[in-house]
Amino acid sequence: MSEAVVTGLGVVSAIGQGKQAFSAALLAGRSAFGLLQRPGRQLPGDTACFAGAEIASLQLPHALLQALPHAPSVSLRTASLSARAALSALHEAWHEARLDQVAPERIGLIVGGSNFQQRELMRTHATHAQQPWFVAPSYGQVFMDSDLCGLCTALFPVRGFAYTLGAASASGQMAILQACHAVSSGQVDVCIAIGALMDLSYWELQALSSMGAMGSSRYLHAPATACRPFDTDRDGFIYGEACGAVVIERTGLAGNADRSGVQPYARCLGGAVVMDGNRHPDPSLAGETAVIGQALRQCGLRASDIDYVNPHGSGSRIGDETELQALRANELQHAWINTTKSVTGHGLSAAGAVEVVATLLQMRAGQLHPSCNLEQPMEPDWRFVRGAAQDCALRNALTLSIGFGGINTAMCWQQP
After folding, report:
1. Looking at residue 62, what is its pLDDT?
2. What is the DSSP string of 314-339?
């Protein structure tokens, strides 16, 4: 994977749309948590069941809207919230990397996520429950996750391949790993990985809360304090709408004269995936320890080479403890650590991609964002970023993303 570099990033989240707004909010530690407001997010008859972070106003770029008349087969009328977020993030990453100058047949797309349009599907079912014959014919295609691939490739000239990839909360980072493999193997010259916005309904929120994975009602009176990764008073993850796009390309491709000015964010040194043989949401110390060790060995790095770890850090009571044990087992206590989910919330299928975006933006800025609500760190002597942004020259970074079903992923990044 030494031939893969990142040349474009795009992001949509509750704390800001676009890299500039997103990065400013991250470095300021400015979150956007509240009670969830979107229709279909609260239990019927109740308006205060679940806390989270929602995008206040998702605005599609003007240039993207201008392109619609030239793509007559495309209509945004049936595009879901997940699809609109993906288009916005893809547009930003595409134009930063100047992909219009790359042959379309040499560009691929991987959308990380599955079952990510649950709220919109639930609302359709509820609307037509008594008269199903009135459901719109377009439902026959938009209920499929692959519809997002079709929409993206209709508006952007991606003609190599496009598919969705499901790996629960590790979907976003898994998509990036596969994009790196596609570029490194020569299958394509450029591959875009998108971590799709997972649009939860009250059905999923209630189930995740009941299983103890999501935060309880304990902090509903003060939702800004609910998301507390690695704090001794953590209470489970807090949902946050988000979508991230990452452009991976072959080293040297940006040297094309038509793409002058494209500056790589980082080299992708490699990564690893380890399954721990568990269908359930239980974290595995063996699996997480192994995936970190494998990623470091594949990249030819020692633990002492890692300057910064962007962890999964969801706020889960068992998950956070397990992750810190895995980091200790790999002798990474010296590295700087912060918790992106404490600011953005947990984007589930999008989380891994959004956290890679956050990592690379921090590497370029030479600053690490603070961790929100980290009042009593589980490991007081570790180098958690707290209170305010921390100036830090970063050479090598490690990103971790864990998913239900025993999925463990790790990736290593290096300044170009």
Report:
1. 87
2. ---HHHHHHHHHHHHHTT-TTSEE--
